[in-house]
Design a protein that fits this description.
This protein is mainly beta and about 120 residues long. The protein has a single domain, classed as Immunoglobulin-like (Sandwich). The chain contains one helix and eight strands, in the order βββββαβββ. The strands form two sheets. Strands 2-1-7-8 form a four-stranded mixed sheet, with no helix packed on it. β3 and β4 (about 30-40) form a beta hairpin. The longest helix has 7 residues, at about 65-75. The termini are close together.
């Protein structure tokens, strides 16, 4: 079990390899950086789970994805400022016995997320 993420680039139909992401724990307005990472060729954290089941605690978390930086690096011409720059996903973990998978489907103009398995 634990916490994981996965990003798919819906503009190109590929995993978002090379996108920078950051994981935070949150407490009200306070956010504490846990990890900064670059997505691997499969669009996932290269180290596997963000938290394993023993380390994941109930509470609130934030994932921040550098969408504009990723698409610019892919050669996509974006307006200034870009429509999507950093995509921030705030979510809660209630039951650490379950797996929490937080995928992001993203293009320069839209994104979608859900709780995966």
């Amino acid at each position: 079990m634990g916490l994981s993420t996965h990003v798919l680039d819906t503009m190109h139909g590929t995993p978002a390899a090379g996108m920078q992401a950051r994981l935070y724990t949150t407490h009200g307005e306070e956010a504490v950086l846990v990890k900064c990472f670059i997505l691997n060729q499969d669009g996932r954290n290269p180290d596997g789970l963000l938290y394993d089941s023993a380390s994941l605690q109930p509470g609130t978390y934030r994932l921040v994805f550098d969408v504009a930086g990723y698409f610019r690096a892919k050669g996509v011409e974006l307006p200034e400022p870009p429509f999507l720059n950093q995509v921030t996903l705030d979510f809660g973990v209630a039951d650490t016995r379950q797996h929490y998978h937080v995928p992001l489907l993203v293009s320069p103009w839209s994104y979608s997320t859900y709780r995966g398995s």
